[in-house]
């Protein structure tokens, strides 16, 4: 019987484990990638397009992390906030499903938002596609991004809904808010000035 050295055994075992890990599907394989050129311009007014390799659900549950903030976040942003869906809520005007339509956010866009994104969802065999909007654009047109070239479907699939996400500024108001001790000092100074004026008025009258 041929003996196997400890070094050979360790090398063989390590190689087997590595190959096993590479062949196993896991969360590390999830990614958000840039769109191919044939769908990157499917939304007018957009300056960027990305899609998830794994996320097929557009989860906006308040007690769970938003799907668009996972796997590094769409456009590298991990603090997107959900705002509404096109065609479903007042102010989110346009066509929120089908093969093509319009979108209009003119009445709800907040100038304080740093970034705004439209996320498209369809059905089976597709994943989420996001379009980051240009800074000065509040409306435009769209065509379904769920094309055969990217998703290997027989025909372009309908959009089921379009979600609107935004990113708020990381900092708060630039106006300084006085601390409680400062406020107390201001109040005492004011009371002292009032007492001084009363005494001065009384002295003049006597």
Polypeptide structure, described:
This protein has 206 residues and is of the alpha+beta class. It has a domain at 24-167. 25% of the residues lie in helices and 22% in strands. The chain has helices at 6-23, 37-40, 148-151, 180-205, and strands spanning 32-34, 46-52, 81-85, 93-94, 100-104, 115-121, 129-133, 139-143, 161-167. Strands 1-2-7-6-9-3 form a 6-stranded antiparallel β-sheet, with no helix packed on it. Strands 4-5-8 form a 3-stranded antiparallel β-sheet, with no helix packed on it. A hairpin with a 5-residue loop joins β4 and β5 (100-104). The longest helix has 26 residues, at 180-205. The protein is globular, with a radius of gyration of 29 Å. It starts with 5 loop residues before the first helix and ends with a helix.
Can you give me a brief rundown of this structure?
The chain has 206 residues and is of the alpha+beta class. The protein has helices spanning 6-23, 37-40, 148-151, 180-205; strands at 32-34, 46-52, 81-85, 93-94, 100-104, 115-121, 129-133, 139-143, 161-167. It has a domain at 24-167.
Spatial sequence of strands, sheet with the most strands: 1-2-7-6-9-3
Structural class: alpha+beta
Which sequence of SSEs, written as H and E, runs from N to C?
Answer: HEHEEEEEEEHEH
Share of helix among residues? 25-40%
Q: The biggest beta sheet, please?
A: 6 strands, antiparallel
- Please count the beta strands (DSSP E, at least 2 residues each): 9
How far from one another are the termini?
123 Å
Poorly predicted runs of 5 or more residues: 7-28, 172-189
């Amino acid at each position: 019987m041929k003996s196997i050295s400890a070094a050979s055994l360790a090398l063989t075992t390590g190689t087997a484990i590595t190959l096993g890990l590479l062949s196993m599907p896991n969360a590390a394989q999830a990614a958000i990638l840039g769109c191919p050129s044939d769908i990157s311009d499917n939304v007018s007014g957009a300056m960027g397009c990305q899609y998830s390799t794994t996320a097929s659900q557009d989860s906006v549950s308040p007690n769970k992390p938003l799907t668009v903030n996972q796997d590094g976040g769409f456009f590298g942003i991990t603090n997107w906030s959900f705002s509404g869906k096109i065609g479903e809520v007042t102010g989110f005007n346009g066509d929120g499903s089908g093969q093509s339509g319009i979108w209009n956010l003119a009445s709800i866009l907040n100038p304080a938002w740093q970034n705004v994104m439209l996320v498209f969802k369809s059905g089976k065999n597709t994943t989420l596609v996001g379009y980051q909007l240009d800074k000065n654009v509040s409306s435009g047109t769209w065509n379904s991004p769920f094309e055969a070239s990217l998703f290997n479907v027989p025909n372009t699939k309908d959009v089921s809904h379009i979600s609107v996400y935004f990113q708020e500024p990381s900092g708060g108001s630039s106006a300084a808010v006085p601390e409680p001790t400062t406020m107390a000092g201001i109040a005492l100074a004011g009371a002292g000035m009032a007492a001084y004026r009363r005494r001065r008025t009384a002295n003049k009258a006597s």
